[in-house]
Amino acid sequence: MAIQTITPDGNADGVADDDVVDLATAPVAQETPKTSDTATDRTAALLQAARAWLNQDPDPETQAQLRALINAVDDGDTVALSNLHSRFDTRLAFGTAGLRGEIAAGPNRMNRVLVSQTAAGLATYLRRHAAPGVTPSVVIGYDGRKNSQIFATDTASLMAGAGVRAILLPRLLPTPVLAFAVRHLDASCGVMVTASHNPANDNGYKVYLGGANNGAQIVSPDDKAISDEILRVAADEHVPHLPRGSYETADEDVVQAYIIQTAGLAHTPRAQVNAVYTAMHGVGWDTTRRVLEKAGFDLPTLVDAQIAPDAAFPTVAFPNPEEPGAMDLAYETAREVSAELIIANDPDADRLAVAIPDLSSASGYRRLSGNEVGAILGWRAAALAASPDGDTDGGLAENTGTLACSIVSSPALRAVADAYGLRFVETLTGFKWVSRVPDLIYGFEEALGYLVNPDTVRDKDGISAAVVLLSLVSDLKSEGKTLAGYLDLFSEKFGHFASGQISVRVSELSTIALVMTRLRESPPTHVGRIRVDEIDDFRWGFGDLPPSDVLRIRLTDGSRVMVRPSGTEPKLKVYIDTRCTVGTLVERRSAAQAALDELDRGMRALIA
């Protein structure tokens, strides 16, 4: 058993310091004055920084919040002091293509001051990277979360004031529409104000680049260059003094173009599907409805309580279809109408969840994993590439095109690519990487993200994925088959793949670093009773992949375990994948599940 790692100097020692997650932080860049070592002076400097921030804040809500904290600290409240340190000792940093965090006052939270500084810094970056004589442009979208429209209009005004052509989408819309608009309008940049499926009081700021980036989310070195400009603004500029300008509002033609392109992914339905749909209190339904109508599908039965945008997300504890309980109302609705299929978008509609009837489940339905949906959509994409006329029985053909998924997603897609003579590529986690794969025809991530139309949208898209899935279910129904049966056919053709995940939420990010260090310094020889064959360490890069805080544990039975910090939440995540290719379907399932259970027990012990 060996640990493979490559360091800048060829040694195996050292710890990467450039892996950034959304909740990671960077220095505040002169916003907190230099202080002495005394607690009194440190508190005085902190209060000075907080008052300076307060003087820039245009938001009455965060003003009042910060003023109350300052007064409490002045009165000797130690809890308030700790709270203030949490907000001002560090700063939200660019991570997974932008910013994401709780809406509150201070540089380590999402608010109008931080967004204004970000917009001004991004504008400077765009001007500096524009061709001579060319005015850079940005298209800005926003969802239905708290402050999304405010953050978007602030961005548009500040971008325009900084000499960037700013175009605001006409209303709250899904993230895929913004990703589409970057390319459709040939914009230099795109900004989407959303926190996707995060808790209700979070918001975020996703950044896309046009031109040679083809509308994909930012990656290194652009993220670092943009961050440097933002920090310069934070250190040198006063937000009320930043210039504002007039921006444009895009016509509905942009939305209609997305609808036409997305509906075109489906052929005329061969059979209508009795489906249920939920928007999870997000912005997906209006656009999804128009796409389905254009494609010729009957409209699904709606989960009425979750269909309209609502920033409070009142019916769910956590607006993520993967979370326990989030799909309960959809199951209830599906039982009422005996639905054949449930489709769900997350709040900004870039993800898709799918559930099918299952009599063994208490709810009567089973939500498919992202790996299951990713595999069958990949099979469909490969089959259509092999036979564009719709004959999906092909395989082992001389085909062109690439299937791609992230390193933590199921190896099932590789098996599909091999069977159809297609290239397969693994990327780091995030669609900022998946979407950049050359000659891509399909890509997915296990976290319910699917890219089925790379010619028009270079990001995950829960609406286009829903259309393709409905087309598949329609075809199957016309042949007297079901999606459950199609999954069985997949296991018979490619082997049965089982996947599991362990997610450990922490209160301190340092806890995750300690676990990763322990696994590196004392690598396990077994996970449970299964022997470790090899451990790949990605911290300095691995193969063609850039550095990332990831460990891949390969087991002697062919199973695989991935360990990494979450990119959007304070969690340590473990991904387990097993496969069985011998025996009957029942035997394959049993063997793959047994290995999965053993590895789950073993990894829980290792990270405890």
UniProtKB/TrEMBL annotation:
The keyword Nuclease does not apply. The keyword Hydrolase does not apply. Residues 533-577 form the Alpha-D-phosphohexomutase C-terminal domain. Keywords: Isomerase, Magnesium, Metal-binding, Phosphoprotein. SUPFAM superfamilies: Phosphoglucomutase, C-terminal domain (SSF55957), Phosphoglucomutase, first 3 domains (SSF53738). Its cofactor is Mg(2+). Signal peptide: none annotated. One of its GO terms (molecular function) is phosphopentomutase activity. GO terms for biological process: carbohydrate metabolic process; purine ribonucleoside salvage. Pfam families: PGM_PMM_I (PF02878), PGM_PMM_II (PF02879), PGM_PMM_III (PF02880), PGM_PMM_IV (PF00408). InterPro entries: A-D-PHexomutase_a/b/a-I, A-D-PHexomutase_a/b/a-I/II/III, A-D-PHexomutase_a/b/a-II, A-D-PHexomutase_a/b/a-III, A-D-PHexomutase_C, A-D-PHexomutase_C_sf, A-D-PHexomutase_CS. Residues 92-232, 268-355, 395-487 form the Alpha-D-phosphohexomutase alpha/beta/alpha domain. Transmembrane segments: none annotated. Belongs to the phosphohexose mutase family. This is Phospho-sugar mutase.
